[in-house]
Amino acid sequence: MLPKFVEFREEGPREAFQMEKKIFPLEDRVAIIDALSETGLKFIQVGSFVHPKAVPGMADIELLCSKIKKKENIRYNGVWLNKEGFDRARKVPGLYLKGDLLFYTSDTFARRNNNRSADDINADQAQLADYYLANGLQLEAAFIFPAFGCNFEGDTPLSKVVNLAYDIKKISNEKGFKLPIIGIADTMGWANPEEIKRRVGAVREILPDARISLHLHDTRGLGAANVYAGLEIGVSIFDSSVAGLGGCPYAGHKGAAGNICTEDMVFMCHELGIETGIDLEKLIEASCLAEKVIGRQLTGKIMHSGVLNRH
Amino acid sequence: MLPKFVEFREEGPREAFQMEKKIFPLEDRVAIIDALSETGLKFIQVGSFVHPKAVPGMADIELLCSKIKKKENIRYNGVWLNKEGFDRARKVPGLYLKGDLLFYTSDTFARRNNNRSADDINADQAQLADYYLANGLQLEAAFIFPAFGCNFEGDTPLSKVVNLAYDIKKISNEKGFKLPIIGIADTMGWANPEEIKRRVGAVREILPDARISLHLHDTRGLGAANVYAGLEIGVSIFDSSVAGLGGCPYAGHKGAAGNICTEDMVFMCHELGIETGIDLEKLIEASCLAEKVIGRQLTGKIMHSGVLNRH
User: Fold this and answer.
1) Using CB atoms and an 8 Å cut-off, which of residues 240-269 of chain B contact chain A?
2) In the listed set A240, A260, A290, which residue is the last one of a domain according to the structure?
3) ipTM of the predicted structure?
4) Mean pLDDT score of chain A
5) Which domain holds residue A58?
6) Do A301 and B261 touch (CB under 8 A)?
């Protein structure tokens, strides 16, 4: 069941600089993105269009977008949480915009992340889909998060994930579009390998035509095991961060590990005979640059041990 | 196929203090072991009886053994690489000695680790078994290492592992004893989850009555995935290190991650519904103490994020 090809969607630049207290020099942040552009990655999330007071590290996102050396065939993506953010993002030349629908399982997390109730946000998604389509965006994915557990509300009942999958199906049927990807996000590091299989399986039963993507954090050290569990059931899209950058600024635990580490997971895929289109050595160079910029040892492993020396 | 109960064999005290350049105060090293004794761990490897010039951090192993507060039902174990080491270990009161046979797949690694050729060491093991039996030790395990790959010789051919498993079977048949455990060691972090399944499966076919133990390092970030792959095929003994301490001083890469982290893997087992007999909160306390003693952030994850808050 292992997939033949896995797509990694790089989220390090957003994940890192939205949570770091310090504001890092623009040229350093640009240099990391430019280094990532040399690795074979086809999707790089460069930042988010959010209020500068809420996330000071993203205040100059427009300027950053203008400075990066954009390469053809790479989708440079930015995220937003509301229409104001979208209106900013759409003005940025060369940015790849996609219409993502975001469904929250946790009301507390929704309020912390987006200042609104989960029910309100979820109820808006059908209308938001219309809005994106009217504005010429492709609807690419619907995300369910947190899909495993929440630091504020505990375990996410499987029924909540299932009900949201049914809501997504209903919206798709009513509106007559198909969402090619359903993202299942373990925003706060609650997943374990068996729950990965259970929840991916449950969502697939409801939405069999969609591809599943997994957004995983290594908060509690199970990231690699969760990726492997996903691979075992054929999941072929993973969000990840170079050097394991990131974390979630609203998740409520400091000092914890960030997202699954792109180069470590690319290494795992290559070892398993799965193609990724990524040059691992170049990715490690980008990772080492990120560590130099951040100025402390990052959690990525292979960047410190080196790849296997097969002679 | 997941096991109902997994035994973790704690190797942190040995793995850490054999590789750290600095000599840490005896009372700090004793305090870590004493903290580990409160966690429910039943096997704690306190150090090794090796030449003080080769491993200065183990020079006072006898004194350390005399200072730890030994609890009943815990096996405090020490390792040795030759008869001189064994002669020192057997003089230490309260230490649990077991006769382990060590089979090397890599000649270069054998020479670096033990100053002798792999063939010489492997050929000695039958005689060594007699010697241990004559000295009243139980023969507990035969280890094959490195069983996946070697930083000096590259991928370990599966045939080398298989041939050593046949050698072990032959010795057992000739001598009329059964080794209850076959240890498969990924000393330098070359394993991946599929190879775990392949190699464990191959050894089990040859030695179906033995339990398999896995000794894994997280050198390249696949530790958790490799543990999960082992669990999926019913492996129920893992060597590990609190806080992810350790590494191998002769493996030839500095700054790399150490062994799989005991508390992160205990956490995974508990999340998967597998019992371990370990009090995770107490283990995290021991882990935090180890970090304080070592004086830098260690690689364990859950010690920094905390366990799941299920309310």
Assistant:
1) 253, 255-257, 261, 264-265, 267-268
2) A240
3) 0.95
4) 94
5) 1-97+275-311
6) no
